[in-house]
Design brief:
mainly beta; 10 strands; 7% helix
């Protein structure tokens, strides 16, 4: 997977579907693919959750409501990466790599949870996670 690009950031607010979880993520412009990559991975879990992901540092994400009490964690395969969901509505918020996947302490934030994002206008970069991590894929 690609590491996020650096540059000036701006705050984006987001939430799960029911609003129990709210956050602010600081990211380079999501409308500028030269500043921030929005990734779509084809691995089994990213496909099932519909993730479109950006990768801020841990310091770049601020939970403003509901964390940690409204978070449900799902782990599979290597039991390291935590997939974060809302306990109430089930929205797939993103993932916590626990410092095990990228250099540095990166998180994955599902862009679909960010308010006001027009997904069809984003330039999406595809990642072949299915072949990168074949041991973690499920074919059902």
């Amino acid at each position: 997977m690609s590491i996020p690009l650096t540059g000036p950031t701006q705050p984006y607010s987001g939430s799960c579907h029911c609003g129990a979880l709210r956050f602010t993520v600081h990211s380079p412009s999501l409308q500028d693919p030269a500043a921030q990559r929005v990734m779509e991975c084809n691995c089994s879990v990213c496909q099932k959750y519909g993730y479109l992901t950006i990768y801020p540092s841990r310091e770049g994400l601020e939970w403003t409501q509901g964390y940690p009490e409204k978070i449900r964690v799902y782990k599979f395969a290597n039991q390291v990466v935590e997939h974060l969901q809302c306990k109430d509505c089930g929205s797939a918020m993103g993932m916590d790599f626990k410092g095990q996947v990228f250099d540095g302490d990166m998180l994955g934030v599902n862009v679909r949870m960010i308010h006001g994002i027009d997904v069809p206008k984003l330039e999406i970069q595809r990642a072949n996670g299915r072949d990168m991590f074949p041991q973690f894929n499920r074919d059902y």
